[in-house]
Amino acid sequence: MKKLSKKERERIDEIIRRLIERYGGESRTYLEHNNAWQLLFATILSAQCTDARVNIVTKDLFRKYKTLEDFAGADLKEMEKDIYSTGFYHNKAKNIIACARMLLSEYGGEVPKELEKLIVLPGVGRKTANVVRGNIFDIPSIVVDTHVKRISKKLGITTTEDPVKAEFELMEVLPESVWIIWNLDVIALGREICVAGTPKCDRCFLADVCPSCKG
Fold first, then answer.
1. Domain HhH-GPD spans what residues (predicted)?
2. Mean pLDDT, rounded, for 154-176
């Protein structure tokens, strides 16, 4: 871990403590799934789309395409219609079909846990890979989505707009044991209180330890 001043270490530890106290500190995902490849595909669909919308779409999608073989053999135009409401449906449909085919041809139908194997799958970047690693394989991972990037910077824990750089900055200052929890609890904070554009600083339980507080 990065060496911090005693005061800054105590501030970050207090932020972690309050987040866990508020949101439970339990490992969980907001995307509904029954297995690793379903979570992988749901995460691909979640790019520039809400988890709630993805869950509505995948409820029918996973009934229609029950196996990896079903996805691998899907018609592109039909898949586009099936996932249309998640946005960017052409690329997402193309990537999901190609991803299913690669999982079958390269990995025997199993989702790999290694980061380097995950990020070569079509449509899979570090964020998607880390969601799978953290939630399926319980491998400590930092997932930098829009909430995590924005709020970590507002809290003065990261300094960059680049999600990959933010991931490594967070890994340097957060205890590995809370990496997955940080992802989930900060997302919860972003949805409930630290809303983009209209943060409710007057209601925030982190107000006194947040350098961006406007309360």
1. 45-192
2. 95
